[in-house]
Each structure stands twice: as structure tokens, then as C-alpha cells.
Amino acid sequence: MNKKVTTALILVLSVMLVITGCGNSNSSNGNGNKNKNTSKNNETKETEAVSGASKASYTPYDQLKEKYDIIIVGAGGAGMSAALEARAKGMNPVIFEKMPVAGGNTTKSSSGMNASETKFQKEQGIEDSNDLFYEETLKGGHDTNDKEMLRFFVDNSASAIDWLDSIGIRLNNITITGGMNEKRTHRPEDGSAVGQYLVKGLVKNVQEQGIPLFVNADVKEITEKDGKVNGVKVIFDQTEEKTITAAAVVVTTGGFGANIDMISEVRPDLEGYVTTNQVGSTGDGIRMIEKLGGTTVDMDQIQVHPTVQQEKSYLIGEAVRGEGAILVSSEGKRFTNELDTRDNVTAAINKLPEKSAFLVFDSGVKSRAKAIEQYEKMGFVIQGDSIEALATEMDVPADQLKTALDTWNSAVTNKQDAEFGRTTGMDNDLSGAPFYAIKIGPGIHYTMGGVKINTNTEVLNKDGEPIPGLFAAGEVTGGLHGQNRIGGNSVAEIIIFGRQTGMKSAEFVKAQ
User: Where does the secretion signal sit in this chain (predicted)?
Assistant: First the structure.
């Protein structure tokens, strides 16, 4: 009898330890959009949780303190980078994340991180310059980018790659994406999607540094006293509200790409588009900052990504085209330069009667763009052992598809695309069977607009003056990208400016 009681006690204690190890409950909705408090939304979050960081990494609520040096709102790439740099400066930061897992839209990032004059480019004989990166990004943004922000961005891109490498996050596999003429999109060594790799590495470092990271922690208000930001009001697990104080607050909550109401306010023409954004991207940080007197810029500049799998609103990364894929219509014909800027490729697809197209590639592209393995698992990839067999699966004319591929392969051989003037992503032809295709269409992808900051990542008011103690970075901010973001620049932005918020908020706290 005693033996049975002992066994039962051990079992109960084991279950309790597992629950404690999981940290916070993930039962809260916490997405900041009351129109989406449905069981379907919870299922979506659970699906995202599977690919996000481990729940065991998160801090239990009983470890919450009433005061920290710096509060960071949002646990995406920018927020975690900020926390690590703040810790390196001797600060005691905390991260509050409203979703059940860390990562935000960073987890969904696919193609890579742009940077120029990096050590990995030099090792691989890629000649690049910060000036060229600057000019190509400015051109991509139609010369509407905040030039001071852009200059800081490109000049600090190589050091961001070095910093990531120093903490065990190596991005040395380099490809090219739209709007660029040089290979500067840095990916994990195996060529896989950058997002999950980045989030996993950042969470690991946050955990190793002992930085508290609370999930299901929905910040509802940034507080201030005597003209200075002094903390936040946060609801834990949708039940208990607490006021936590700090000498500085860093906002890294992401954009508003999943908030259809906010999008409709500024871009009613985008109604009906699918969105690639995770459900937590609802513009909370923008709204909270506006209440403090912060101003916004470029709010109507919303990027529609040309290659989104429509049924599951899943982004098909630009690296697939960068490694050689082409776009064909339902007639089996090419119709655009696949590596033109995103707005131009989107416009070309929208001119087609069906407003959709196919990405077509071969086994070589599949081997070089590892993200395709994930697309295959999700059931997006159509396969054929020959071009004719693929055409049958795609339901397009086989002769037209064969002509498109033959013409493209000749263009690759001659290094001249006479049809559409493509000059990049032409290192390899499409001749290695089997052949593949993914059906795509445009989808809301990125909100270029957001709160106005300076290169010190200080949030500015309507007079252009910093709001004391308030910093921001990432997609919650606006101005850097202008009217069109170049693929690969968002990951660079969150690391470059995320680090800057950590350093500058620490300097602010020390000066108090």
C-alpha cells in the first residue's frame, strides 16, 4: 500500500513539474483584436506555436517583479535583440509578449537578411558596397525612404551579421532577392528559412542571459509621469492586470497587417486580400504610442507580396525566385521579370485575368531553397517527372510551358533575358527533373508605415522631439522603407534597430 502511495505522489509531482516547466498558460487569446476571439483563432495560434519557440523557455508568472530597468513590449526579432543588447550594457530588462509564443512575424520570415560588405560576402568573393545597398533600397522605395534612417541601416548591416554570428546565429548562405543587383540576402548555412532559425537562436540567448520573457502578457497601456515614460499596464492570461514600472520602455510590437479594420482605414482598396501576418500583428504599439503624443508616417504604404499561397495565406519566399524559379500564367507563359520589386511583380500578376500565377522550378532550385521542403509538407507543391507531366498537373498547355522553359533556359545560357530584362537569379537553368510548381497570388504582407523614430530609435512627437524614455524598432515604426520594401530588409531592420533600441535605452537609463 505504501509503495502505491509513493508511486502516486511521484506521478503527481512529475505532472506538476511539467506544468511549471511550460511556464505561462497559453489559453489567452491576447491578439488585441476583439473581432477574432474565436476558437478558430486559437487553433491558428496553436499551429503557429508548433513552429515557434519552445514554451519551456518562458518565465513563470511567479517570477514577475514590480520594477525593471527597461520594459520591452513584443518578443519578435527586434524585441529580443533589444533585450540582449540592454543586458550587455548592464541593464535588467524584461520582455512582455501578448501571444502564447515568442517570435511574432519574425518566425514567418523566409528569404533571409540583407546586409552589405559582410565578412561572408568577402569570403565568397561577392563584391558589394553600402552605397550600392543604399541606392538600390532608395530606388526600390521610389526615393521616398527616410534617407537618414536608410544610411544608418545600410552602414550598420554588416555589424549586425557579425553580432548574430557572435551569439551562434550564422547567416552565411547568400542569395539574391527582388530589387537588388548583388547577392546580399543572408540565410542559415543550410539555406533554410531564416525566421524560425533566428527566433530559436534569439530565445536561446535570452534564456542563457537570464532575461525574463513572459508570454500571454498583453500590454494595454504605456504609462508616464512628469513627462517621462515610466512603465506599462499589462494583463496576464486575460485575467490579472498589473502596473510594472521602468525607466524606459521599448516598443517592438510589429505592424498591423492582421488588423483589417486598421488597414481599411488607410487602404480600403485592399479589402478582400489574404494576409501573411501572424494574428498578433494588430497595431497595438502604434495605438499606444499615439496616445502618448507620438506621430506616425507612411501609414497608407502597405506592401502586398506577389507570391502568397492563397488557401492558407502562406508566404512563398523570394528566395525561390532568387534561386532561379520563374512565374507563368494559367496559359503557361512568362509575363514579367520575376525579380523586379514586389509592387511591380504584384501589379503584373493583378493584370492577369485570374489574378494568380504559378511559380515553376526544378530539382536544382528545390535543393538550394530549403524552404521548399516546408511548402511541400504543407501540400503546396505540384510535381511532374517531365515538363509535360507538370503541365498536366497544373492544367496549363504543355506546349506553352515547354516553350517558356526552353526560352528561359536559353536566356540563362546567354545571360540575357530578351523577354523581360531579368538580370539576377540566372546562375542555373531549369532543366533538372523532376519539375515543380506552386500556385500563388498577392497577399497583404508588410505595413511600411508606423511610428516616427530617429536613428537613436527614440519615438518622436508631432514637433519632432523625442518622448523621454520611449523607444521603438521594427515593423511598428515607419519611414525606412518608403513606398516599397525590398525583400530581406525587414529582417535586417529588426536586428539593426532592435540592437540600437537596447543600447540607446540603456544609455538613457544610466543618464537618469
Answer: 1-27
What would the pLDDT profile of 340-355 be if each residue is shown by its tens digit? 999 999 999 999 999 9
Q: Where in the chain is CATH 3.90.700.10?
A: 305-444
Question: Does domain 28-301+448-512 sit in CATH 3.40.1190.10?
Answer: no
Using an 8 Å Cβ cutoff, are 392 and 401 in contact? no
| DSSP strand pairing (113-114 vs 173-175) | unpaired
Residue 375 predicted with pLDDT over 60:
yes
CA–CA distance, 15 with 405 (Å, rounded to integer): 58
342 tagged catalytic: yes
d(CA 512, CA 505): 11
Residues in contact with 265: Cβ distance below 8 Å, sequence separation at least 6, in sequence order? none
Catalytic residue among 334, 342, 422, 499: 342
Task: Provide the pLDDT for residue 378.
Answer: 96
Q: What is the Cα–Cα distance from 443 to 453, expressed in whole angstroms?
A: 27
CB 348 within 8 A of CB 326: no
Instruction: Return the exposure string of 67-95: e unless at least 16 CB atoms fall within 10 Å of the residue's CB, then b.
Output: ebbbbbbbbbbbbbbbbbbbbebebbbbb
Q: Is 175:185 a contact under the CB 8 Å cutoff?
A: yes
305-444 CATH fold: Flavocytochrome C3; Chain A, domain 1 (3.90.700)
From its phi and psi, is residue 38 left (phi > 0), alpha (psi between -120 and 50) or beta?
beta
Mean pLDDT of the chain: 90
pTM to 2 decimal places: 0.83
pLDDT by residue (tens digit) across 407-451?
999 999 999 999 999 999 999 999 999 999 999 999 999 999 999
